[in-house]
Amino acid sequence: MLFAQARTETALTLRNGEQVLLTVLIPVALLVAMSLMSVIPVPEPRVASATARVLALAVISSAFTGQAIALGFDRRYGVLKRLAATALPRWLLVAGRVTAGLAVVAVQVLVLSAVALLLGWRLPPVTGLLWAAALLVLGSLTFGALGVLLGGALRAEVVLALANIAWFVLLLIGGVALGVDTLPAWLGVIVDALPSAALAEGLHHAVVDGAAPALRHVLVLVIWGAVAGALAARTTRLD
After folding, report:
1. Radius of gyration of the chain from its Cα atoms, rounded to whole angstroms
2. Membrane as a keyword (predicted)?
């Protein structure tokens, strides 16, 4: 049942043109731009640093923005209410969405990694790849919980606006496109506590240095995910 539900959710996501634009085309375009254009300050090695940050953006795009918008409109059109009336238990509906989100992230990682290799990216040591995989899973769960929190409590139109605004804010000043150390000191302190910066910086350590992420970055992701999950369980509505 879980496999069937996850397969359906994944297929619906990948068939949606807007979702493909958000989860694949924009991250690929940004990866190429950050790797080849000197307008955006990116540490050396440039391609590896850009790859780490765009992987973080890919997780945010699919697990948070895409998840929130899809959930908001599923509630609006009564999809969740109808599914809840079937033999599928509620926990399996949630697990199916989470599994589908991880499947979409896996597709994103494969596409972005292939493009990065064409741009000259050299794979890090195996330990770095393992840490990157663990961070991608943890980041997907954290931003998935945030996406459910947003999409499960507000009207679809409000979710659409807030999710897209949040995506742009996290990209520009959330520690993704610009590193925390490039921001003003007062803003850097705030951004360093955001899950977007924690994921981007953690992936930078894994992908560029082949090293383990800083403990504070892991803790930031865990805390945000736990709090968002607990709140989502209380506030998510089926209609």
Report:
1. 17
2. yes
